[in-house]
Amino acid sequence: MHFVFRIQKNCHHTRARAGIFHTPHGKIHTPTFISCGTKATVKAMTPEELKNLGAEIILANTYHLMLRPGADLIAKMGGLHQWMHWDRPLLTDSGGFQVFSLADRRKILQNGVEFRSHLDGTKHFLTPEKAIRIQEKLGADIIMCFDECAPGDSDKKYTREAMIRTHQWAKICKKTHENHCHPEPVEGYNEKHIVQKFPQALFPIIQGGIFSDLRIESTKFMADLDFPGIAIGGLSVGESKEDMYHVLEIIEPHLPKQKLHYLMGVGNPEDIVEAVARGVDMFDCVLPTRYARHGAFFAENERKHIKNACYIKDKQPLVKNCACYSCQNYTRSYLRHLCMENEILGSRLLSIHNLHFLLELMRTIRKQIEKGTFEHFYRQFPWRIKKNSKKK
Ligand SMILES: [Zn+2]
User: Fold this and answer.
1) Which of 81, 117, 213, 274 is paired with 304 by a 20 to 30 Å CA distance?
2) Domain end call among 227, 259, 286
3) Is 153 in the active site?
4) Are residues 201 and 102 in the same domain?
C-alpha cells in the first residue's frame, strides 16, 4: 500500500480527527492546508521557504499547465516534482474547475468538455480519460477525477445533471487510472509510453450544490467506488456560509471514516475551523498568497489591509507574537510602504506571513485534537466569534 491514512485521534465532541496520510513523497499530518502553486509555483515563494513554513503538500493546476508549457514537456523534464524542485507530496486538480468557469468559452458534452483556451483561443477537448492521462504525465502524488462543478446559482435540475455526469466520469477516471497505474517506481522515461515514476492516488469529487438529497446521493456514490480519499467540491462558490456548513454536516455520516476527506477551495480561517469540526482533513486555497499580493493579511480575528493609512507610522509587526520571518523583522510601517510602492518584497513578506498563519493554525488545530481540547478551541476561535457577532 503506497497511500495509507491512519487516524490517530478523534475529538469526542465534534467530528474532528487528527491523522497521517502516507504518500511516496512523505507524510502529511492532518488536518492540513495545501498551499496553491497554480502554475507550478506558489507565487513568490521558493520550495525551501515553503518547507521552512512547514508546508507538507502543495498543489499545481492541470488546466494552466496543460495549456502552457504542456504536460508532455513537464514529463520530459522528469515530472512536476523534479521540474519544480519540490520533493514533498504534490496534488494536481483535474482541470475541470477552470474549464467550467470559462462560461461562454466552453461546451459541455456527455463525454467531456470542448473549450477555447483563455490564452490564445485555441480549441481543446478535455475528457475524463484525458484529464487522467495529463495528470499521470505531471506525476503528482494525489490526482483528481474530472468533475463538473455546477455554478453556485444553478437550479436543482441542472445541479443533478452535472452531478450524474460527475459520477459517470468518476467511474471512467477510475478505470483509466487502474489501466495505467504502475505500482512500482520505474527509472527513466519512455516517450512513447508515459511510465509513472511513482504511484498516484486518485480522489473522486462529491458534487450536488446545496441540495441535501443530491449531496448525500453523491457522497454515497463516491464512497462506494472505494478511492483512497474523497474530495468535496462545489462549495465556496457563492453559496452562504450556513449552506456550506450545512452540506458538510449532512454528508459527514456518509463519508468513509477511514479515508482522507478533502474540502476543495476553502481557506478562510473560520471556515477551516468549522469544516474540521465537521470531519474535514485537508483544504486548499489561493487566498493566503492572493491576499498578500493585494496587501491583505491575516490578523488575530479578521483580515486587515496593510495599505490602510493607520499603519503609516505603526512600529508593530503585522501580528503581535507571530513567529513568522516577516513579523520577527519588519514593522507595519515598512510593509505598508513596500505594498504601496508595489515592491515585490512586499508581496513576498505578506505571503510568508499569511502562509505561516494558516499552516500554524492547522498545527494548532491538530494539537488541540490530540490533547482532547479541540471543542473548546473551536468555540473560542476569535475569527469565528467575530463573524458570528457581526451577523447580529
Ligand atoms: Zn507573521
Assistant:
1) 274
2) 286
3) no
4) yes
Q: Domain tally for the chain?
A: 2
Q: What is the pLDDT of residue 192?
A: 45
Cell numbers describing residue 218: 453523491
Beta-carbon contacts of residue 241 (< 8 Å; ≥ 6 apart): 271, 274, 387
From the CA of 219, how far away is ligand 1's center (Å)? 38
For 32-59, what is the mean pLDDT? 97
Which residues span the domain enclosing 129? 4-286
Structure confidence by residue, pLDDT tens digits, 56-108: 999 999 999 999 999 999 999 999 999 999 999 999 999 888 888 887 889 99
Cα–Cα distance measured from residue 367 to residue 362, given in angstroms and rounded to the nearest whole number: 9
Cα 269 to averaged position of ligand 1 atoms, centre (Å)? 15
The verdict on whether 120 is a catalytic residue reads no
Q: How much distance in Å is there from the Cα of 259 to the middle of ligand 1? A: 33
SS3 133: helix
Q: Of the given ranges (95-109, 184-198, 297-311), which has the lowest mean pLDDT?
A: 184-198
In whole angstroms, what is the distance from residue 35 CA to residue 57 CA?
Answer: 7
Last residue in a domain, options 286, 306, 329: 286
Q: What is the pLDDT of residues 139-176, one digit of tens each?
A: 999 999 999 999 888 999 999 999 999 999 999 999 99
Residue 252 DSSP code: G
Residue 103 contacts by C-beta under 8 Å, 6 or more apart in sequence?
A: none
**Whole-number Å distance between alpha carbons of 36 and 265:** 10
Average pLDDT taken over every residue of the chain: 94
Options 72, 87, 93, 271, the catalytic residue: 93
d(CA 286, CA 52) in angstroms, rounded, equals 19
For residue 130, give the nearest of 40, 70, 59, 201 by alpha carbon: 70
How many angstroms separate the most distant Cα atoms in the chain?
62
